[in-house]
Amino acid sequence: MKKSQRGVPMRKQYFIFLIVLFVSMVMIRCGDESSEIVARIGTEEITKAELIEKLKQDYRNVSLNQLSLEDKRKSLNKLLDERRKLLKAKQLGLEKDPKFQQDRETYADRLIAIELYNQLVRDVILPEKLLRQYYDWMHYKIKAVIINVGYQGVKIYNRERTREEALQLAQTYRKQLEASSDPEKTAHELSDDQRNRPVLNPYRIGRFTPKLDSLVFSAGEGDVIGPVDTDRGFIILKILQRQETSLSPYESIKNEISNRIRHYFRTREKELFDQYTAQFDEKYHVEFYDDAISNFLHQLQEWGVKENRKLEDFTPEQRGTVLAVAGDVQITVDDFLNYYKTRLFRDFRKYRRMEDLKNGWLRQQVTLKVWTLEGKNRGLDSAPHVQEELHQFEITRLSQLVTEKEIDEKINITDEEIEQYYNEHREKYKQPEKIQVWQICLNDEATAKKVAQWVKQGKDMEALYKKYMKPHKGQTIPYSLGLQTRNSRFKDVVEKAFEMGPNKLEGPIEIGGDFFIIKTGDYIPEQYRTLEQVKNTVHSEIFNQKRKQREKEFLKEIREEFAFRINESTLRDIG
């Protein structure tokens, strides 16, 4: 079997890896919140930190000290119900479900890879000292005026002048800005950016460069900064105001700071990622099996054009085909199929060439595996942070599984129930009458009469619309309104169309001070949709009703089954 080692462009690896990790990364909590226990239920504990996080989700834009004790109890009860479902799921042995085990393993791998990536890459480019420095700066609201001076080759203000000419010009502009009694007017007159007001209020970190951030937050009112060279050209700033402002605690906005300045260090981040990925590829003997990849892609494309294709068409032998290895981990066709599932019916077209798979999904999986293997070797699978996040995953996923088993799967709906529900709620499935409408709106009667006459003589009505159409009450009405009901947003025009009846042409008709030529087409009378037409809708409505009822019953059962204790003093202390 033909093998190839690594060989995927590092730039491609880097961006694939970041895309895969991004969704998971936003779930990672920062900081060491209090581990006080606010409630216990069975073998499960609910911490103060977990409840605070839940309160923030349930009561967005409301500070904790504004919440009542009843508010806190409502959120705590939601967490208690989640834990009850978890305990019931374990009682039923659902944690042994093969699909759950597979999902848990995949999630754990990502957590471990993220933890390692944060240690080796993120924490290097964004050290704690730097984030703290930016946090201190964010205590100040800065208002400044800005002058942009571009030169050849820069991203935004690309001008004919050379860099040296731009620098000389920027130095002259600095002196003019220093001496100006109207900094905003001067900045507007001198800046290469003539489309935007030259005022930054506030100056936002992450917009320019770390050097400029440092200079701005170190300056006082009236100071002029620059020229500073950036990828958009030279920048000169004058500080107009510097006001101290309140700020949330550091731990609560640490991730926000990191996200706002991370792009400054993207090149270095990529270099570190490339360096470590290459090391891990070599350490774990990464190999791609080119022959197997080629054969699978041929099978995939053949499958993609088959009629009535199903995922089950792939045989166990085909699913077991190994596409790549990393350490003792094999990445197979089955992994690919399980990843895409029904999306493969559409996405199989993405994989026509070997490079499409090797540089795409397969490289993504290999990269995750080598970072996960290294993370496990460093003991990160046992890290408290990883274990905490994994436990949260178990709570969520097992709660879903027990809901499916104890609620959804116990709902039975007969054809007789569907028919009875349809007959009792038939008015819900009534379709209103409709009429097809075309129109031209004009603002004066004389022109409207001419246009109406031309239409009646057989001239192209749509062409006349394009030439003479005027807005009605400030709104442009489309030429073809299609099939309209009496609830149309073009109510006056459509009501007139219903009065006219089908397949008619009238005009000019005065409506709201304007003059309309209106043509009608097909008319569809009011009618009831048949049971066959709405059977799926009816089934869903009955299912949702029964689901709500069964959910109440199930929650009542598990609330009676699993006792709990609340630490009232800790609950009251929150906020």
What is this structure, in a nutshell?
The protein is 53% helix and 16% strand. With 575 residues, the protein is an alpha+beta fold.
Discrete helix count: 23
Oligomer: single chain
**Strand portion:** 15-25%
Helix content: 40-55%
DSSP strand tally: 17
What is the total number of structural domains?
Answer: 3
Strand order of the largest sheet: 1-8-9-10
Average pLDDT, all residues: 92
Structural class: alpha+beta
Shape category: extended
What ranges have pLDDT less than 50 throughout 5 or more consecutive residues?
22-34
Q: Give a quick account of the main beta sheet: strands, pairing sense, barrel closure.
A: 4 strands, antiparallel
The rounded Rg comes to: 33 Å
Distance between the termini: 64 Å
Could you explain how this protein is built, in words?
The chain has 575 residues and is α+β, with helices and mostly antiparallel strands. The protein folds into three domains: 355 residues, no CATH class; 107 residues, Chitinase A, domain 3, CATH 3.10.50.40; 93 residues, Chitinase A, domain 3. Helix content is 53%, strand content 16%. It is built from 23 helices and 17 strands. Helix 5 crosses helix 9. The longest helix is centred in the C-terminal third of the chain and has 31 residues. It is extended.
Layout: helices, strands, pairs:
Layout: E1 3-4, H1 10-25, E2 37-41, E3 44-47, H2 48-58, H3 69-91, H4 98-125, H5 128-137, E4 140-149, H6 163-179, H7 183-190, E5 199-200, H8 210-218, E6 224-230, E7 233-244, H9 250-261, H10 266-283, E8 287-289, H11 290-304, H12 316-319, E9 322-326, E10 329-332, H13 333-340, H14 344-347, H15 354-358, H16 361-377, H17 384-406, H18 415-424, E11 430-431, E12 434-442, H19 445-456, H20 461-468, E13 480-484, H21 491-500, E14 505-511, E15 514-524, E16 527-528, H22 531-561, E17 564-566, H23 568-573
Antiparallel strand pairs: 1-8, 2-3, 2-17, 4-5, 4-7, 6-7, 8-9, 9-10, 11-16, 12-13, 12-15, 14-15
Helix pairs in contact: 1-10, 1-16, 2-3, 3-17, 4-10, 4-16, 4-17, 5-9, 6-7, 18-22
